[in-house]
Design goal:
The complex is a heterodimer of chains A (282) and B (364). Chain A contains nine helices and twelve strands. By secondary structure, chain A is of the alpha/beta class. Chain A has a single domain, classed as 3-Layer(aba) Sandwich (Rossmann fold), CATH 3.40.50. In chain A, the strands form three sheets. Chain A has a six-stranded mixed β-sheet with strand order 6-7-8-3-9-10, with helices on both faces. Chain A has a four-stranded antiparallel β-sheet with strand order 2-1-4-5, covered by helices on one side. In chain A, strands 11-12 form a two-stranded antiparallel ribbon. In chain A, a hairpin with a 2-residue loop joins strand 4 and strand 5. The longest helix of chain A is centred in the middle third of the chain and has 18 residues. Chain A is globular. The N and C termini of chain A lie far apart (57 Å). Chain B is mainly alpha-helical and 364 residues long. Chain B has one domain: ABC transporter involved in vitamin B12 uptake, BtuC. In chain B, a hairpin with a 2-residue loop joins strand 1 and strand 2. In chain B, helix 5 packs across helix 12. The longest helix of chain B has 36 residues. Chain B is globular.
């Protein structure tokens, strides 16, 4: 299954909570088939922007266009055929197996009295193969680990067969192996289907590794936009996050690796501790 | 044998690992079929039990003969025919329909509000319906109008009014917080019950029959009552079953359900109206019978799982069987007098509910 390249454009988005502008003047153009990372400190507006993009939140000003068509007034069913979203902490419904949860992603393609048929099962099979969730398809979702659940929710979004995939911190609460496997899966999906991905990422290094472009948000505005190497510059990241960072090059991939400086525990102070590897470190 | 052909065969490709093939879990028709058979057996047995015992075979013969399937056998006394067909069966049929309707509405409310405690009584629908019916009964508005009863309509309006008030109080821009809805429902329910009591005490010195009706009773039911309530319940069944698959998506966050293509607010409104209509029809004929809408869906969920496509019809069968049995107890245990069936359902329902809660906690 491949999607035709589907772009996502916002123009001058503004969202207010009371008198506070949570998002202000957001102009974002996501090209068809790219992975766009949204980064920024907590409260920068990443989740709010994703909710606007998904149509869950109506902005006070501005509009979202998909391939040139405004989506604000689409009924939920039509929108769900175009945009799939995995929120940060999806509800784990009681008493449903992984397969049943994935099949819920078929809802936009099913009428009121229609139940899932063989075509829906094929799509579920495809989605669960891609996300390596087939082996526990019959187990209750509640009995799965966090990383397994995250992949099931990704499979549910894939089952929607939507050309746009929105992900809110897909690697939150996962250990490093699951972080990579989830991001590899997303990369695979993109390569296979040409889906357009917008992902809020709290891990800047992972964002740099997997995203084609990165939009940095701070206090509700986009402060930088471009390829990871251009956006993840020390002065920019330090200013946005309010902490000193060092940025080095990934020893394997050459992508930026963001390291918060902070402080080191006293015994590791370079002047007092012996060099870890003895000879050669002089 | 051509060895060279074997030798020349290209090296075998590593076969891809066998892929598990996903199978759609088959719908448990056998469960529904078994439930239906059990319900029919209960109906036949309950038909035979009473001040005059009629053997199940004779009950079956009478029903078959009345439906025109067979000729009435000479072995069946005339009195039995009257007892079974004119007195007991309409009452049992009404119990089954009311039980099924209450259980279905309860399951729908619970699914809709993602709250296992939601039930027609908790969110004020039943007491609102009771108030509507009481107003008609007390004010002397003719309850029947050329064969068409005002009672279910008045109960429906009362129930819908109560749930609408709860709904409007709880509704905020962009959503419907469930806790607020249920709290508002409890308050509205208490208020309408109080108004009902006040009306009864002020209007009629002889409130005993009405009080009995309010506690839930099926005494004196005839086929006309069944005819009145059946269309509403059938409408409710069709409507709610149509939304059974969508109800599964309501087990998610509402925002997630919307992202998966559910028109959340519209679906909620339609289902609330359908469930309230079904509840009101049941209440208008049988009074306030508690615990059926709470216990039946719970029992089904604990034993058979959470998919509403199976949960809704199975809960109907369980609710129908429960109320038929409860009514059997109500009319036989203190014979020749009777208990209000609502008292029986509370006596069986409350401990059963507590037992289920215990069991569910242990399994979880």
């Amino acid at each position: 299954m491949t999607h035709r390249p589907t772009s996502l454009v916002t123009k001058d988005i503004r969202v207010l909570y009371g008198d506070n502008a949570v998002l202000q003047g957001i102009d974002l153009t996501v090209a068809g088939g790219e992975i766009m990372g949204l980064v920024g400190p907590n409260g920068a507006g990443k989740t709010t922007l994703l909710r606007v993009l998904s149509g869950s939140l109506k902005p006070q000003r501005g509009e979202v266009w998909v391939n040139g068509a405004a989506i604000g007034h689409l009924p939920p069913r039509e929108r769900a055929k175009v945009i799939a979203m995995v929120s940060q902490n999806p509800t784990v419904p009681q008493g449903f197996t992984a397969l049943e949860v994935v099949l819920m992603g078929r809802n936009p393609h099913l009428g009121l009295l229609k139940w899932e048929g063989s075509r829906d099962m094929e799509v579920a099979q495809w989605a669960m193969e891609l996300t390596s969730t087939l082996e526990f398809s019959m187990r209750p979702l509640g009995s799965l680990s966090g990383g397994e659940r995250q992949r099931v929710f990704l499979a549910r979004a894939l089952a929607q067969e939507a050309p746009i995939l929105l992900l809110d911190e897909p690697t939150a609460h996962l250990d490093i192996s699951f972080q990579c496997s989830v991001m590899d899966t997303i990369e695979n999906v993109k390569a296979q289907t040409g889906v357009t991905v917008v992902a809020a990422m709290h891990d800047l290094t992972l964002a740099a590794q997997y995203c084609n472009r990165i939009a940095a948000l701070n206090r509700g505005s986009i402060v930088a936009l471009g390829c990871p190497e251009d956006v993840l510059r020390p002065e920019l990241v330090s200013a946005a996050y309010g902490t000193e960072v060092a940025i080095i090059s990934h020893p394997v991939h050459g992508t930026p690796v963001v390291l918060p400086k902070g402080r080191v525990r006293p015994s590791h102070d370079s002047s007092t501790s012996p060099a870890p590897n003895g000879p050669g470190s002089q | 044998m051509n060895l060279s052909a074997i030798r020349d065969k290209p090296e075998e490709q590593p076969r891809p690992a066998a892929r598990p093939r996903l199978m759609l879990p088959s719908y448990p028709w056998w469960g529904l079929g078994g439930g239906l058979l059990a319900l029919l057996a209960i109906v036949v047995l309950a038909g035979g039990i009473g001040s005059v015992y009629v053997p199940p075979m004779s009950v079956l013969q009478i029903v078959a003969a009345k439906l025109g399937l067979i000729r009435m056998p000479d072995t069946v006394p005339w009195a039995w025919q009257t007892i079974i067909w004119e007195i007991r069966l309409p009452r049992i049929a009404l119990a089954a329909i009311v039980g099924a309707g209450l259980a279905l509405s309860g399951a729908t409310y619970q699914g809709l509000f993602r709250n296992p405690l939601a039930d027609p009584y908790l969110i004020g629908v039943a007491s609102g319906a009771g108030l509507g019916a009481t107003v008609v009964l007390l004010t002397g508005i003719p309850a029947f109008y050329s064969g068409f009863s005002l009672l279910p309509i008045a109960a429906f309006l009362g129930g819908l009014l109560a749930v609408s008030i709860s709904y409007l109080i709880a509704r905020r821009s962009g959503g419907l917080p469930l806790t607020t809805l249920i709290l508002a429902g409890v308050a509205i329910g208490s208020l309408t019950s109080a108004v009902t009591s006040l009306l009864m005490i002020r209007a009629n010195p002889d409130v005993k029959p009405l009080l009995g009706w309010l506690l839930g009773g099926l005494a004196g039911a005839d086929w006309k009552d069944v005819q009145i309530v059946l269309p509403y319940v059938v409408l409710g069944i069709i409507g709610m079953m149509a939304y059974a698959r969508v109800l599964n998506l309501f087990q998610l966050d509402e925002e997630e359900a919307r992202q998966l293509g559910v028109s959340v607010e519209r679906t909620k409104l339609i289902l609330i109206v359908l469930a309230s209509l079904t509840t009101a029809a049941a209440v208008s004929m049988s009074g306030l019978i508690g615990f059926v809408g709470l216990v039946a869906p719970h029992a089904v969920r604990l034993v058979w799982g959470h998919d509403h496509r199976f949960l809704l019809p199975m809960a109907m069968l369980v609710g129908a069987a429960f109320l038929v049995l409860a009514d059997l107890v109500a009319r036989t245990i203190v014979s020749p007098s009777e208990l209000p069936v609502g008292v029986v359902t509370a006596f069986c329902g409350a401990p059963f509910f507590l037992y289920l809660l215990q069991r569910g906690r242990r399994l979880a």
